[in-house]
Structures are given as C-alpha cells and as structure tokens.
Amino acid sequence: MTVVHRRCIRFVLIVAAVSGLIGALVPAPLAQTAAEAPGQALFAARCGFCHGRDAAGGETGPDLTSSPLVGEDVRGDKLIPVIRDGRVGAGMPAFALGTSDLDALVAFIHDQRTKAESQPGRRRGVVLADLQTGNAAAGKAYFDGAGGCARCHKPGGDLTGVAARLQPLALFRRMLFPTRGDRPNPATVTVTPPGAAAVTGRLVYRDEFTIALTDSSGWYRSWPIDRVTVSVDDPLEAHRAQLGRYTEKDMHDVLAYLQTLR
Q1: Alpha helix locations (H) across 26-122?
Q2: Between helices 248-258 and 168-176, what is the axis angle to 10°?
Q3: Entry pTM
Q4: Model confidence over 47-105: pLDDT tens digits?
Q5: Are 139 and 256 a contacting pair, CB within 8 Å?
Q6: What's the count of helices (H) and strands (E) in the chain, helices before strands?
Q7: How far is 230 from 213, CA to CA, in rounded Å?
Q8: Does residue 20 sit in the same domain as residue 44?
Q9: Residue-range definition of the domain harbouring residue 214
Q10: Are 49 and 26 contained in the same domain?
C-alpha cells in the first residue's frame, strides 16, 4: 500500500470519528420534541405569543387555564371552531390547521388547565368575583371613621358616580395607588434657599440628594436638598400611609362601598 493510500485511509477514519463524536454531542431534534406534551411545540409557535407558552396568559391574550370556554369544552367542540375561525373582533387570527394539529392543541390546553387546577394560588389574573367579597356598610363605616377617607373625599363631590366611571379593578387600583403614569403628580413643594425668596411649584423629583420642581412659569429648577428648606404638600400622602394600615377586609369593604356610588 502506498503512502498516499495510507494517508487517505487515515483521513477517512479521522473524519468518521469526529462525525460520530459530533453526533453523540448534538441531540437529534426528534429527541427534544419527544418529551414534550402533545401540542406543546405547536402551541408555543402559534399561540404562545399572546397566551403565554404555558397557556396561562400573555401580553395580550387571556389565561386559557381559567377560561370558561375551556371549562365547557368537550374534546374540542368549543375550542376547535375558535382556533379554526379566529375571533377577528378580539384580535385573534384564524389558524388553518389539520385535524391532528387541532386535536393536539386542544389536548395541550386541557392538560395545562388540569395542571393549573392542581396548584392553588397560582392564578395570575383577577376575576370580578375576587372584588365582590366586601361589605358595603362596613366599608362606609371605615370610610367615614377609622380610614379617615371622608376628610378629603365626598360621595356627593369628587366621588360622584365614581363606580359608573371606573370598572371594579380600575376602581380598586385607583383607591390603593392613585398616582399613575397617565396623571401628573399633584404634590406641590416650596423651596427656600438661604437668604433668597421661597419658590413654589409642582414637585417633579425628590430623593436624598436633590429636590426639583416646575415653577409657575414652567421652568424646571433643582437644588441640593441639604442646602435648602423644603415644605411638601402632597394630597396623596394619606393614600400611601393608608396602605400600611389596611387589612384585606378593610380594602374589600371600602371597595364594596365605593361600588355603590353611582
């Protein structure tokens, strides 16, 4: 055998060995999907963006594990028409899938629902029933008395028709956290620098180093907080203080009372 032939054979053996090693290190795609639940990969690809990979709700889609439609479904009689035809008004597209794929999706959704029901307390969403456990009479007593809410809010004033303007969850959020990104901070601040006139304006920023406001002319002004005298008037401070005093019963009772103000 010539030297060239021996080198060729050696090269072929090295390539075969390396190929076998790579094959051992890289699992086949089928091995990855074999352990998945029926329809899991299909659901993740087609539905997971909206409903979450685990069907428990995503950025825009509802939690299917607590969906009444899923609860009423029997072997796809309710789900398959929705998946196949979509819900255009709700932003859900139609999916042209074969029978086996539709059955796999239905099986996966039901499997996720079963898992969710076996895990108490894992629910991510809030349903209306969660917000209807309070006692309105007790809530009014708390509102007028221990809660001190009536010092600033009046059922016939700023709260007139509040339950008609806000849905229960939005009303609950507004009650607990009245400051949100879509509403300006109502707090005002007066800053008095040494030897200078006081400046009053809307509080813009405050931390342990800096105090800043927007004055009546719209100018942004800031000072080192340890070099000025500061007086803040924040009408929402009472709400923040109240969070540490509420019991769960108090919160739901007050919400129940607010829902009567229509």
Answers
A1: 29-34, 40-46, 48-51, 68-72, 79-85, 99-117
A2: 120
A3: 0.47
A4: 877 888 888 887 677 888 888 888 889 998 989 998 888 876 677 878 888 899 899 99
A5: yes
A6: 12, 5
A7: 11
A8: no
A9: 188-233
A10: no
